[in-house]
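Field guide to reading this record: the first block holds the primary sequence, the second block holds the structure written as C-alpha cells, and the final block holds curator observations. Each block starts with its own label. This record concerns Putative transcription factor, MADS-box, catalogued under organism Helianthus annuus.

BLOCK 1 — SEQUENCE
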Amino acid sequence: MGRAKIAMEPITSDKKRKLTFNMRKQGLIKKAHDLATLCDVDVSMIISTNDQETPQQIFPPDSNQLNRLIDLYKHCTNPVNQYVLLDFFMDRKNKMEEELVKAKKKNVEAKYLSWFDFLDSLPEVRLREFALRLEK
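BLOCK 2 — STRUCTURE
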C-alpha cells in the first residue's frame, strides 16, 4: 500500500503551511547532503521565502563554499540546460499537435476506406489511371 496522493494546492492554514515547509525543507537539505556525500559532487541550495520572519537558508552551511560553487557556476564553459515554464508548455503544445495530426489521419483513413489493400501503396499517377479505367 502506498501513501495517499496529496493535492498540489497551497495550504491555507498558516501553522500547517509553516510546519510542512520546515519538514520538506529539512528533507531537501538531507537529500542534498546525501547526494553530495554518496556521489562526491558539489551541491548547493538557497531556500528563501517571502515571509520576513523566516531567514534564508543555504546548503552547504559554509557561505565560502557556497560562493565558490556560485562562481564556478558563473564561469562554467559548458552551457547549462535550462527548462523553463515556456519550454514545458511548448513541449505540451507540440505533443498535442502531433496527437491532433494522428487523430485527423485516423479519421481520414476511417472515412475513406479502400477495399483493396494494394491501392494504398500505389503512387498518385497509377491511382489516376486506375480511376480512368473504372470510369470507362
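BLOCK 3 — OBSERVATIONS
The chain has a mean pLDDT of 86.
The CA atoms of residues 23 and 131 lie 73 Å apart.
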